[in-house]
Design brief:
By secondary structure, the chain is mainly α. It has one domain. The chain contains 9 helices and no strands. Helix 2 packs parallel to helix 4 and helix 4 packs antiparallel against helix 8. The chain is globular and about 40 Å long. The chain starts with a helix and ends with a helix.
């Protein structure tokens, strides 16, 4: 835990340097394929320090996360020996089998949900390559989910400012679950009602 805390503090310190946007890009890229600290930490800090650039930071984070996801996909596709070690560092074999099952049912929806969900996104990006998920489906679902996540956080900070940070920190997982439920309800409505 000490190492994770040090990494967390290291990520956060970039918000107070002129290299914040570059660090955000690198961390967001790395988190989608192997790095343990989510970019939201730095994204929130940068948005609070420069609220007018919130949407720029969300875009940087999204592009980097999708590119990092593609790199994770490539690891799973070509370097499974390395990819399996990364995955099993974060989750057990039961979770890996669960991810496999979700891919078999609905690959695009599984990737989309993974962009918001509690299982580290890198588990899905590497697994997607290993299971040969359609690359176009992977990229579209990744862009929508990661973009949705980062733009929601940035929009909340842009509108509500510093007070929302405590709320986001405290209820981040719950907010992601609520958003996912709304998206799934939207898909159901589109499919069965409209």
């Amino acid at each position: 835990m000490k190492l994770i805390r040090k990494l967390y503090d290291w990520v956060l310190h970039w918000a107070h340097t002129p290299y914040g946007a570059i660090a955000l890009f690198i961390i967001s890229f790395a988190e989608s394929s192997f790095f343990p600290i989510p970019p939201d930490v730095l994204l929130i800090a940068l948005n609070l320090s420069k609220p007018k650039k919130s949407f720029f930071y969300a875009a940087v984070c999204t592009v980097a996360a999708v590119l990092g996801g593609m790199f994770g996909y490539y690891i799973g596709l070509k370097f499974w020996d390395i990819g399996s070690k990364i995955i099993l560092y974060y989750v057990g074999m039961d979770t890996f089998n669960y991810v496999k099952h979700q891919f078999e049912l609905h690959a695009g929806l599984a990737i989309f949900i993974a962009g918001f969900g509690p299982i580290p996104y890198k588990v899905f990006t590497i697994s997607a390559g290993f299971f040969h998920i359609n690359f176009t489906t992977f990229v579209i679902a990744s862009t929508l989910s990661r973009g949705g996540r980062f733009f929601i956080v940035s929009t909340l900070i842009y509108i509500f400012g510093a007070p929302i940070k405590v709320f986001i920190d405290k209820y981040f997982n719950l907010l992601c679950i609520i958003f996912l439920l709304l998206v799934i309800c939207g898909f159901i409505l589109l499919k069965y009602v409209i």
